[in-house]
Amino acid sequence: MKDDTQTLIEVAQKAQAFSYSPYSGFKVGSALQADNNETYAGCNVENAAYPLGQCAEASAISAMIVAGGKKISKIVIASPIDKFCPPCGGCRQKIKEFSDSDTQIIMSDKNGRTKTLSIAELLPFAFELD
Ligand code: THU
Fold first, then answer.
1. pLDDT tens-digit readout, 86-124
2. What is the pTM of this model?
């Protein structure tokens, strides 16, 4: 039987097909499971004004928030290549906002290999207001 992580990886891989990445050609997909047990997907959305591009993780987080989710239980980042796509610095901070120490950040490469880290491992000594 497929576990929920495997399902999340497949959702993230499907999201890659919708990536709008004409400038980099680098199609990233993300899928997260929220505290409400729902799944939200995202892809990277680039822009001719390059800095305005949005990462796949940020898209998935926005989908969670607008649907009422509050916390990330697991988030997958699906890479289009043979190497993992670790979240960029800004996305680490965005993931942190909706994570706790149990949150799993799962990177998958194009072959479905995975590596799972916590937010403390990805973003030690993080900025927070409280
Ligand atoms: N990108 C993501 O969507 N997520 C990451 O974790 C790293 C990079 C996107 C941004 C840009 O559209 C493309 O990958 C190449 O940097």
1. 999 999 999 999 999 999 999 999 998 999 999 999 999
2. 0.97
**Integer Cα distance of 72 and 130 in angstroms:** 19
Residue 128 bears catalytic tag? no
Determine which residue's CA is closest to atom 10 belonging to ligand 1: 55
43 lines ligand 1 (CB under 6 A): no
28 lines ligand 1 (CB under 6 A): yes
For residue 7, the SS3 value is helix
Q: Could you state, in order of their start, the residue ranges of all structural domains in the chain?
A: 4-122
Cα–Cα distance list, 121 to 78, 104, 111 (Å): 19, 11, 24
Pick the catalytic residue: 38, 57, 121, 128? 57
Cα–Cα distance measured from residue 57 to residue 119, given in angstroms and rounded to the nearest whole number: 14
- List the structure tokens of 79: 């890479």
**What's the CA-to-centroid distance between 26 and ligand 1, angstroms?**
7
Domain boundaries 4-122, corresponding CATH code? 3.40.140.10
